Amino acid sequence: MGWIVLLYVLTSVGVGFWAARRVKNTQDYLVAGRRLPLLWTLSLLFSTWFGSETILGASETIATEGLLGVIEDPFGSALCLLLVGIWLARPFYRLPVRNFGDFYALYFGKWTERIATPLMIVSYFGWIAAQLVAMGQVIKHFTGLSLPISMAIATVLILSYTIWGGMWSVAAVDLLQNAVIVIGLVVLIAFLPSGWEARLGELPDGFLRFIPPATPSAWMNYLAAWMIIGLGSLPQQDMYQRVVAARNERTAVQAAIGAAFLYLTIGLFPLIAGLFVRLHHPEWLQGGGESASILRLIESYMPPGVQVLFWGALVSAIMSSASGGILAPAALLAENMIGQWQRFSPLTRARLSVLLVAVICFLMALYEQNVYDLVGESSIFSLVTLFVPMVVGLHMPRWCSSYGAIASMILGIGIYYLMKVGEPVIHPLWYGMGGACGGYIGGLLIERFRRIRLYAAT
Questions:
Q1: Helix, strand, or coil here: 246?
Q2: Residue 70 included in any domain
Q3: Is 444 contained in some domain?
Q4: Mean of the per-residue pLDDT values of the chain
Q5: What distance in Å separates the CA atoms of residue 353 and residue 163, rounded to the nearest whole number?
Q6: Nearest 5 degrees, angle CA 446-CA 452-CA 454?
Q7: What tens digit of pLDDT does each residue of 385-410 get?
Q8: Domain-located, residue 365
Q9: Which of 79, 123, 346, 452 could pair with 381 in a Cys bridge, judged by C-beta atoms 3.0 to 4.6 Å apart?
């Protein structure tokens, strides 16, 4: 079976190299020349977060915490894609900017962009590193190699086609891999014994509750779970990059809405697997480690020859998320931070940036033992820093303020981490958002007052 999975991985890499033939310039490399058709764009958007956390993490979480424990993913992720389709796809597509870092320069000035760009870049590292760890664990499972060597192999495999073909390679590989994801998860559910769902009544009271108890703190935390990815992933380079890769606005809108419904549908399959484990094999949840239960489920209920479909689905999800994740911060790094480095062409700078991001994330995965703890933080990080200025820039341009944007970013992240230390009853995200909104209003008032004083002095 290991050889079949290896053959599949090499086939995916080959598809990436095949698609790389379309790359002729930087626009081809970073946004596929803005020429992707509907199916390709839908697949690309679906792959934004459908990685190891959705297949492995969500199944484990619902088995231990119930339905309220998985609001963030897949439900919050589907909400984010839906909001992109009905709210942001058209404004994003019309922006006269190269990347999302330029958006902050356009509306709030260069200094704001110099702060926003590094914040966006750093927010990706934990997510990418987590995918490299997951891919390394798969390789270790089949080869018996050490985890560091397996992660190095994973990094090289994902980097090989991403660095060469950019968004064209990512989109082509995603299209192949998403088909495998769907087939693999459908087959997994099909092999579970029939009639097991009749035991759902044995679950603890409230285990399948989708609405929280009627208390203020419960509702605040419930809404925070929806917001983490649902809103936090909107002001991000990867979302902007995938939207503008579509061949026109209509395609971008339709693809985002379609991806939202696909994500919600396919994202339910790992939840079903987690419920089955909870009912029939609760002993697997005791000290098995993250994701151990669903892997044992595969080994116990799927014939060896069919297990390859699940492993193919898992590998596909990881590679799709990792490759697209690497490309997003690399685009910001190439165009906004080392764009003045004229020694190399723009396309070469973009490829060097992909290499640099991959190396940093590999080192992070190698030395950070709790790398999975950083995954959820990436969306919160952008929510409390970048969301408020994005909304003002898109919908209230008259109230744009560089002072306000910078103060919003600094106070949002500062207050969030300050309140997180004390483990408050209400999710610290709310305090961070309060700081972001208050910071923007305060900065705006200071800037307007300063302008009035300067005007009066002249």
A1: strand
A2: yes
A3: no
A4: 91
A5: 9
A6: 100
A7: 999 999 999 999 999 999 999 999 99
A8: yes
A9: 123
